[in-house]
Amino acid sequence: MCTDPASDPIGYYNLLMIKNPHWKQLRAFLTPSLSLAKIKKMHLLVDQIGQDMLSYVETLPEKRPQVREIELKELCAQFTTDVIASTFFGIRSCCLSQEESEFRYYGRKIFEYGARRGVTMASFFFMPELVPYLKFKLFPRDTEQFLRVIIQREMERREASGEKRGDFIDSLISLKSNDATIGVKEKIPLKDDILVAQAATFYMASFETTSSVLSFTLYELTKNPSIQQRLREEICAAIGRNQGGPDLPYECIVNELPYLGAVISEAARLYPVLPFLERQCSLPEGATGYKLEPFHDFVIPNKMPVLIPIYAIHRDPKFFPDPLRFNPERFSKENLDKIVPCSYMPFGVGPRTCLGSHFGTLQVKVAIVRLLSRYRLMCSESTPKTLTYRKNAFTLCSNEGLFANLVEDKLF
């Protein structure tokens, strides 16, 4: 997967696309932004957005007393976009309260797949040598300009005021003020569009991946009331241990809800955000290929792209018996050792595994705890029994809306 640094610097220099050695250097610069200590500090902001989500749900019309129907994909995208805007950029995007929020509008445009957009994304994977000539861009031009304006404006405001929030924008300001560079022979300063590229990475990856996992998890809970009931009992017990309110502390969310963790892991198995991973065979100078013996006699040539079919592996009965059944027990403490290494990789695998996996999981947990503390999820007339997926999207995206009824049923 590759784009062109001259015609598409924001696409090329983002962490999802860039190659070594630049990737390794950039990741080292950005990793502290998502340390566990930073994530813990962001928990209260995430939980506040969770409360905003409940306030939004209360404004929806009732189908009948205490029952509201909602489309889960859009609700989850609004929630995660508000979270990213608040925690990473220090901005209130108001996606949950404003129907035409700019943050949601431009985020949605990244994942709109018309014919041209489909050809553009396919070229990054399968025809990278044509990208410089066709001048394809990873982000739509108006989305680039939107991000460029808000990031530069917020950075300039903080530099002038001296305000520090300890968030992602502060990390970008630090890189700029310390004259950070990437590159070995040619030193490339981290400034202007290269800094915007890092913000664009988290803007694109964070809300789409997290909202996808969250919406598919809620969809499966809707279809599996016994699993949902067990999870609500776990949440109720946690609320009881913490003074009887839904404002669960960070340590409780992370460490005291094992069944919730298993439910999310099973949803990520059935519905991996990226149906496949793209990697490239990189060998020491002079090596001609990578041998697969004793498993196969094929030799992978140096520089050959390798596509790893995550969706197929996650649903292979060799690794997960009865693979189409939603069964969180696969990820119970007693069964974790049975999972074959590299057969489960919703966040990728190896050095390039997702940098934001812990933060994404925290968002999903907070949203589910908030929703299930007040509502039961039930099938509506519009809830799809089975799902089909868009063929021209590079993330797993259902053709059907994920509808559910929210039935008021407070746990406290």
The proportion of residues forming helix, as a percent range, comes to 40-55%
CATH topology, anyone?
A: Cytochrome p450
Fourth-tier CATH superfamily name: Cytochrome P450
Largest sheet: 3 strands, antiparallel
Mean pLDDT: 90
Known CATH architecture: Orthogonal Bundle
For the record, what CATH class applies? Mainly Alpha
Structural class: mainly alpha
For the record, the count of structural domains works out to 1
- The geometry reads as globular
Q: Which value, in Å, is the CA radius of gyration?
A: 22 Å
Count helical runs: 15
Alpha-carbon distance between the two ends:
49 Å
Largest sheet, spatial ordering of strands: 1-9-8
Give the tally of β-strands.
9
Q: Secondary-structure element order, as H and E? A: HHHEHHHHHHEEHHHHEEEEHHEE
Content of β-strand: 5-15%
What does this molecule look like?
- There is one protein chain.
- It contains 15 helices and 9 strands.
- It has a 3-stranded antiparallel beta sheet with strand order 1-9-8. Strands 2-3 form a two-stranded antiparallel sheet.
- The radius of gyration is 22 Å and the shape is globular.
- It is mostly helical and 412 residues long.
- α8 packs across α9 (168-177), α8 (141-161) packs across α10 and α10 packs parallel to α15 (357-374).
- It has helices spanning 9-12, 22-30, 36-58, 72-89, 102-110, 115-126, 131-134, 141-161, 168-177, 193-223, 225-241, 250-255, 258-270, 310-314, 357-374, and strands spanning 67-71, 181-182, 188-189, 277-280, 289-291, 299-301, 305-308, 375-378, 403-408.
- The chain has one domain (9-273, 309-408): Cytochrome P450 (Cytochrome p450, Orthogonal Bundle), CATH 1.10.630.10.
- It is a peripheral membrane protein.
